[in-house]
Amino acid sequence: MQSAADEFAENGYERASLNRILERSGMGKSSFYYYFEDKADLFATLVEGSVADLFESAGRFDVASLSADAFWSACEDYYRAIIAAASADDRSVALGWMFYRLRAEGAESGPTERIVEAARAWVGGFILRGQALGVVRTDLPDGLLVDCMMGIVEAIDRWVVTNWSEIGEAARRRMASEHVDLVRRVLSP
C-alpha cells in the first residue's frame, strides 16, 4: 500500500504505473490480481484505508448515540477532530485531492464510485437519525436531502483538499463551525 501511495502521490492517478507499483513493492502480477481487480480497485482501497485511518485518529462518531440537543455540536466536535487528524498526516489530504480531481474529470465510476456509494449510505443514516430526533427536516424527500448533503459535503471537501496548504491554523479552527453550520442551515427544519 505504501508503494501505491508513493506512486499515486508522485504521478497522480492517470500516470501512476501499476508496473512501477509492483516493482517497488516486490509483488508479482498474479499476487496483485488475487487481491485487487485493477488499478482503480487499488486506488479505491488506498483511499478507503486513508479515510479509515483518519476516522480512527479522530475517534468514534456514533450517529445512533446522538441526542437532539447535541446533534450539531457533536458534528462540529467530530469535524474538529478530523481536521486535527488531517493536520497531523497530510497523506489523507493528498489522496483526497486526487480523489476529487478524478471526480471533477468525470471519472465518477471506477476508482471513486464505491467510496461515494458508501458515503451516500452513511449520509442516509445520518439524515434518518436527525429526522428521528427532530433536528433534520422532513418536508422534502429523503433522497433529495441526501443529494443536497452529498453535494455540500463534496464541495466542502474538494475546497479543503485543494486549498489545504493555504489554510492557516486559525482558519482551520473555524472550519468546523462554519462548514457544519452550512450543512445545518440546509437540513434543519
From TrEMBL:
PROSITE patterns: HTH_TETR_2. One of its GO terms (molecular function) is DNA-binding transcription factor activity. Keywords: DNA-binding, Transcription, Transcription regulation. The keyword Protease does not apply. Residues 17-36 bind DNA. It comes from the Bacteria. Transmembrane segments: none annotated. InterPro entries: Homeodomain-like_sf, HTH-type_TetR-like_transc_reg, HTH_TetR. Residues 1-54 form the HTH tetR-type domain. This is TetR/AcrR family transcriptional regulator. The lineage of its organism: Bacteria, Pseudomonadati, Pseudomonadota, Alphaproteobacteria, Hyphomicrobiales.
